[in-house]
Design goal:
Low-confidence stretches: 7-32
Largest sheet: none
Distance between the termini: 112 Å
Radius of gyration: 27 Å
Structural class: mainly alpha
Amino acid sequence: MLSPSPEPAHLYSIPTDAPQEKTVALFPVGDAPRPRLSILPAPVRTNPWLVFSAGAFLVSVPVFFEAPLVRYLPWLSVLLSAGWAGLSIFLSKQRKTALWGDLLVGFTWTWLCGAIFWGWWRWEPALHIPIEAAALPIALFGLRANWAKIGNFFYLGSLVGTAITDLYFYIVNLMPEWKALMVAEPDEVGTIFQLALAKMYMPWGMAWTAILLTSLLFIGLFGLIQRSSKWMAFSGAVLSTILVDGLFWVAATLS
């Protein structure tokens, strides 16, 4: 009996050295990035901890530099906002510095809102959060449009930290001392600080200090766990609020 002749091997296999076509998916199905609002270059990846440090530093700039400037030259402080905006646009156009330009977008909002409040409304603490939150619609629009995410997250973190601090002032009834400080003569500042500290050291004040400090830590650490640049900028802004508030407490204690 004749055995059937074997089929040619090439019908069942492909030589290992033969070129093969590959299909590469640029993004997993259902995970395609949302279109950006602008055609600016994508930022170069940066160490998230560097973004965290920059966010923490930028929160301290308005407190220790803008506050004294805006007290005497409010219009100059407002005009500097245009300079920050221009610098953010310039940096955003360069791929190597696009991330820092992105971050400066959020810093521009905090600087501008702070200049308006501390320049003309600082003796009205009830208006602090409304004015500081004036750029919130723009930040939310930016997040929805996938524009300046890092900067907008930084602005939101700064706003959260400010809101929690103001909430403490309301609960512990430190608003009278706030108003008094805005119009006080230099030799009256120490007395006002002592009145504020007396309220803070009461059991009610100490309990709320612990509650709101824990809240800031929890919110800030939540952002750190995410490990993305936008969340690191958010956490830097939130956690640096603790440092800034602590420095004011030390200043009041030493006065």
